[in-house]
Design brief:
The structure is a homodimer of 154-residue chains.
Chain A lengths: L6 H30 L5 H13 L2 E2 H8 L3 H13 L3 E5 L7 E5 L1 H21 L5 H20 L5
Antiparallel strand pairs in A: 1-3, 2-3
Chain B binds a DNA duplex (30 and 30 nucleotides) through helix 3 and helix 4.
Chain lengths: 154, 154
DNA sequence: AACGATTATCTTAGTTCTAAGATTCAAAGT
DNA sequence: ACTTTGAATCTTAGAACTAAGATAATCGTT
């Protein structure tokens, strides 16, 4: 632990955590409000977006991509299936596993609503100039990677 | 809508949202894991921290500070009260209103665990240099303010 | 082939919140 | 004083997950 512990350093960290939380909440609220108009949650949308861009994925792959528990994937896919937007497909090589895939209705819906969603996000992030967005993206990527890697030690 | 809509701009926004979400999740997971050792959630800790630094607050003030619904404040304060860490105090001038305040046990607990919490956060945010943290804080503050202000139009 | 360890998903029970409306009191206008 | 409007908190019902463990299939060793 190099120079940690000084009062300034600590306060800087606390402040960064606060603004990180607030920024995320505010932006996520916009995204959520946009998506809720179509009867979807952010997580459901996240699954649909992943399947839209990557094609069918094993449930475990999906789980890592959207960061939920295994039970969460089950729950979310059940809901999307009940809405007719996604479905499970058996995996040929492994009878334990299932692929998640969009139905044609799901594909149609995500294609229809994605542009408006992207625009809503763009508006929510409009407080930064393109250069600032670039910088922020770099820093947040670095921050997220470090924090995620340090997850293990206990 | 100035220059929105171009493909690069849209992708930049999507990417920023993704890294923002991931960074926040990863850091919040650390904070939560640290706090959970004391049987508290992040929201409960947030209330205690606010009351610790600012003294007794009206429930409505607390609500704005930690960004929950009114029902959420009721729920959280009930839980802290059940643990003996916080309590409600009547407001003299307005019989509808209550102050939330830490009990002496609550004050003792937050005083005890706050340093370790700050250290955990500092470690989680350690992927950035002090200068980078400064920059990130500035950008996120700007981003959050803009997104929060744009909340209204519907 | 049979065993144990691992992996993929599902199940059950419970936690932590939110949304919408009810209640209670205050403030302002008439 | 009365009435309306608004503000502060609470209540009820339910949504959206998580944690822990159960089930079932695969893989690697023996």
């Amino acid at each position: 632990m190099s120079n940690s512990g000084s009062k300034e350093t600590t306060e800087q960290a606390l402040k960064l955590f606060v603004v990180l939380s607030r920024a995320h909440n505010a932006v996520a609220a916009h995204a959520q409000a946009d998506i809720a108009r179509h009867g979807l949650t952010l997580m459901e949308f996240g699954i649909m977006e992943a399947l839209h861009h990557r094609g069918p994925l094993l449930l475990g792959e999906l789980q890592k991509k959207i960061l939920v528990t295994s039970g969460g994937v089950t729950y979310l896919l059940d809901r999307l299936a009940a809405k007719g937007l996604a479905e499970r497909r058996r995996c040929e090589h492994d009878r334990r596993a299932y692929y998640a895939a969009l139905t044609s209705e799901g594909e149609a819906l995500i294609t229809e609503i994605f542009p408006a969603h992207a625009a809503a996000l763009e508006a929510a992030l409009g407080g930064l100039t393109p250069e600032e967005k670039e910088t922020a993206t770099e820093l947040l990527r670095k921050l997220g990677r470090h924090a995620a890697e340090a997850e293990k030690p206990a």
